[in-house]
């Protein structure tokens, strides 16, 4: 198989698994967005994915995403989704090209993004990252901090808040992973009741290559899938989140 056929086969396989997980959960597959996560994958391969109809890529690091967005600037309708922790001083880069940011976890970053976005006359879809596993190594707000945090967000008019994102515990043990997804869904449901005007709480971005079926069973609206589409990465996951030694 050539590289394009291989990519097509991986995408078909993941879409079939998403559809099966939706059927098992009594959900409509159109309610689950597959976000291909392209970190470490070079622009040449991403062009193949584009030719197969992919129009969004998830990237963990701003610099890498920015470089690829520039290398692929000739492709229309391409949307870059930042899914990794953002430092305040990188907000100015993110504000230039990102269409969505899924890892908002501080008012300082919200402020920095809003200021830069206003400057460029842009808006950004945003998800609030929640640490549902209780691990110190994970980014994101503790669930208890989220309601007060969300109440502050209408002040940032360039941020279009859409919902919540989490990384579950990395474990083979379903009974430890599932509660992370349940926690995020319950928090989202609660925030739907009390969120201020202009703050939407529809999106639940949860589930990765190793656990997306479980996440769909618990209500995921976006699954972020990297290795199951593009293959194993040469960079260890500890480059993306501290202390990821238990993963893969
Ligand atoms: C890399 C990454 C993913 C995808 O991980 P895979 O295990 O390769 O599917 C999902 N979410 C975030 C935040 C990531 O950095």
From TrEMBL:
Tell me where the transmembrane regions lie: none
Which residues are annotated with the PTM N6-(pyridoxal phosphate)lysine?
39
Q: Where is the Alanine racemase N-terminal domain?
A: 10-233
Q: Which UniProt keywords apply?
A: Pyridoxal phosphate
Required co-factor?
pyridoxal 5'-phosphate
GO MF terms held by the record: pyridoxal phosphate binding
Which Pfam families does this entry report, sorted A to Z?
A: Ala_racemase_N
Quote the NCBIfam families the UniProt record gives: YggS family pyridoxal phosphate-dependent enzyme (TIGR00044)
Its biological purpose: Pyridoxal 5'-phosphate (PLP)-binding protein, which is involved in PLP homeostasis.
Task: Spell out the family assignment given in the record's similarity comment.
Answer: Belongs to the pyridoxal phosphate-binding protein YggS/PROSC family.
Protein name per UniProt: Pyridoxal phosphate homeostasis protein
């Amino acid at each position: 198989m050539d590289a394009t056929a291989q990519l097509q086969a991986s995408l078909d396989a993941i879409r079939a698994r998403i559809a099966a997980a939706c059927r098992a959960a009594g959900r409509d597959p159109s309610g689950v967005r597959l976000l291909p996560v392209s970190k470490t994958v070079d622009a040449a391969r991403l062009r193949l994915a584009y030719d197969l109809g992919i129009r969004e890529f998830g990237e963990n690091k701003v610099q890498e995403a920015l470089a690829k967005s520039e290398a692929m600037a000739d492709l229309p309708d391409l949307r870059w989704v930042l899914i990794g922790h953002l430092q305040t001083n990188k907000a100015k880069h993110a504000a230039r090209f990102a269409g969505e940011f899924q890892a908002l976890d501080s008012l300082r970053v919200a402020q920095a993004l809003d200021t830069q976005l206003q400057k460029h006359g842009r808006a950004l879809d945003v998800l609030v990252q929640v640490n549902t596993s209780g691990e110190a190594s994970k980014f994101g707000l503790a669930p208890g901090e989220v309601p007060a945090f969300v109440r502050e967000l209408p002040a940032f008019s360039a941020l279009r808040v859409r919902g919540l994102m989490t990384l579950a515990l990395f474990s083979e043990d379903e009974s430890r992973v599932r509660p992370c997804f349940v926690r995020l869904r319950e928090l989202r449901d609660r925030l739907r009741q009390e969120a201020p005007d202009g703050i939407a709480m529809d999106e639940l971005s949860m589930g990765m290559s190793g656990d997306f079926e479980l996440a769909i069973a618990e209500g995921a609206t976006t699954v972020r899938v990297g290795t199951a589409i593009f293959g194993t990465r040469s960079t260890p996951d500890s480059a993306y989140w501290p202390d990821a030694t238990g993963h893969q």
